[in-house]
Amino acid sequence: xxxxxxxxxxxxxxxxxxxxxxxxxxxxxxxxxxxxxxxxxxxxxxxxxxxxxxxxxxxxxxxxxxxxxxxxxxxxxxxxxxxxxxxxxxxxxxxxxxxxxxxxxxxxxxxxxxxxxxxxxxxxxxxxxxxxxxxxxxxxxxxxxxxxxxxxxxxxxxxxxxxxxxxxxxxxxxxxxxxxxxxxxxxxxxxxxxxxxxxxxxxxxxxxxxxxxxxxxxxxxxxxxxxxxxxxxxxxxxxxxxxxxxxxxxxxxxxxxxxxxxxxxxxxxxxxxxxxxxxxxxxxxxxxxxxxxxxxxxxxxxxxxxxxxxxxxxxxxxxxxxxxxxxxxxxxxxxxxxxxxxxxxxxxxxxxxxxxxx
Length: 358
Fold this sequence. Notes:
Elements: H1 33-45, H2 47-58, H3 61-77, H4 89-105, H5 114-117, H6 142-145, H7 152-160, H8 164-170, H9 175-186, H10 191-198, H11 202-219, H12 231-247, H13 250-254, E1 257-264, E2 271-273, H14 275-283, E3 293-299, E4 302-310, E5 317-328, E6 331-339
Parallel strand pairs: 1-6
Antiparallel strand pairs: 1-2, 3-4, 4-5, 5-6
Helix pairs in contact: 2-3, 2-4, 3-4, 9-11, 10-11
């Protein structure tokens, strides 16, 4: 066992993705159609958990999707090298995915959230210059990274592992430490299994895990939200937020926010903290968000929306932003609006436009 700081999910019933779970001893190669179809099905059964792993590693929804596609492509090209008699399919796929992620991370800059890059701003019209997409941890829809689970406690813990704050904190770790922590503390692999995947020793895995946990303890979020929120309370908050925002009723919006709420808008590094500053910013908006339409959905283990604005020529609501809101207790504690988020809408299964309101 690794000593030092505990896992950020110590004692939690995280759904296991260990190497002895899932597709076992499945041949993915072969000349006959039935064998090929069985192999393709086995690969697809691993898609969600592999996407979740790559997303936590890379912090990018698009890069994670591409990494999984490349994992499947390499697995299929090398299917004759996979011997089901020597072990299950899952660790073989995770080894390929890990190598792809480590290759992508060589020389890459650290993705982050606006709140990680500097102090809070003050309300005002100047947002600064937008930063490139590669600067930001991107949002990700839950259904692409979280396997279905019947146990509510299991669902709650799984959601914590894809929170924007947690994924951003992971990006502060060196890539191999990041892989070790995700495999050990999030996916519950044994140290020997991780050592086999990375080509190291159990001692080196435990040492990397200690260092990764220490970094997260110092710089990252806790594994548990500060105040639990029931699904009923969250649904009520979301419904009231949608109603207030679509009417652009600032007073009603502010009534839903925590005293220490944060608001940020990638690709700008500008962000605000505190109810008074957020209220001032909303009241002095340039009117961009008037006549908005919000489509609720779950993302990053939290509530969120596809934000549509009327097209200037047709009046039809078209994609504007992907918005993640974090809830604690009975208040909203953060809103992160990914402006110019139209490229993300297909990934979220959101339509390219909505019907105008009658």
